[in-house]
Amino acid sequence: MSAERACALSELETDTPLRVEVGGKPVAVVLDSAGEVHAIGDTCTHGDVSLSEGFVDGDTLECWAHGSAFSLRTGHPLNLPAFEPVPVYVVEIDGDDVLIDPTRTKEV
């Protein structure tokens, strides 16, 4: 599978997660305050809730339900109660398009 258009870059608000579906997978897309676009699995590994409803702080996304924070770069949880990582997808920018391949995760 190749990269699919997930959203427009202009749709992203700084430090505000956007939930999209790519290849049938829920993904949280985040434009961080440094201008980098991240794409991580949108489902918290602790509580099976949407991470895109959470809070961005630097390069972390905190689950709104139980407070686990996940690294936007590695997908690893930074605190309990989550202890399993979420996938982090490779992001490509083509003009105003944010492209994600849901079969291709970052090596961390």
Automatic annotation (TrEMBL):
InterPro entries named in the record: Rieske_2Fe-2S (IPR017941), Rieske_2Fe-2S_sf (IPR036922)
Superkingdom as given in the UniProt entry: Bacteria
Any one GO MF annotation of this record: monooxygenase activity
Keywords: 2Fe-2S, Iron, Iron-sulfur, Metal-binding
UniProt keyword annotation of Acyltransferase present: no
Entries under PANTHER family matching the protein: 3-PHENYLPROPIONATE_CINNAMIC ACID DIOXYGENASE FERREDOXIN SUBUNIT, FERREDOXIN-RELATED
Protein name, UniProt field: Non-heme iron oxygenase ferredoxin subunit
Organism of this sequence: Microbacterium lushaniae
